[in-house]
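Researcher: Following up on the earlier apo prediction. This time include the ligand. It's coenzyme A, with the SMILES given after the sequence.
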Amino acid sequence: MTLAPVPIGDPRWLHAQALDAARIDYAWTAAQWERPHDCDRLFTAGPGAMALLRINPWDHTAHLLKIAVAANQEGTGTARQLWGQIENWLRAESIQAVHLEVREDNRRAVRFYEALGFGRLRTVRGYYSDGADALLLLKALNSSI
Ligand SMILES: CC(C)(COP(=O)(O)OP(=O)(O)OC[C@H]1O[C@@H](n2cnc3c(N)ncnc32)[C@H](O)[C@@H]1OP(=O)(O)O)[C@@H](O)C(=O)NCCC(=O)NCCS
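Model: Understood. Below is the ligand-bound prediction.
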């Protein structure tokens, strides 16, 4: 069965918001969670795993805004499995590529993304408000890209 995005207003959005607050630097504010962008798609795997993507239907790309698992689920493969199902959904939607930014010092996340097949596009110096650098990563979902 293909994983489907969580409908807006579903209580799973609150689980995702809680994970965001607990696990992600620069978490969204409550107002951002209450009014997601029309193109935002949330995916969850139980209350302890979530990913939020913004789909660009004009150029068939997706921006991975956030992905997180609860601390007690790290290293269990949950995040990898969730991403695999999201990739299936993206391919079915004819999305050609996914991009994201990650703090260069978030070693675990960088390793995770590289294990999933994301490649480094470039480094943006001082991208984050504390001066940390960002890595821009890209994964093509279509072999001709
Ligand atoms: C980033 C995050 C989602 C990765 O989840 P995870 O639980 O480590 O991922 P998985 O267990 O599914 O592991 C997937 C791959 O990541 C890599 N990985 C997992 N644990 C690792 C570790 N301790 N050290 C280095 N790499 C690791 C491995 O390559 C692994 O592949 P494998 O299963 O073939 O060995 C998780 O650490 C997290 O929620 N972090 C906090 C939020 C965050 O920083 N999100 C990213 C920015 S939005």
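Model: The first strand starts at residue 40 and ends at 44.
Researcher: Noted. I'll compare it with the apo version next.
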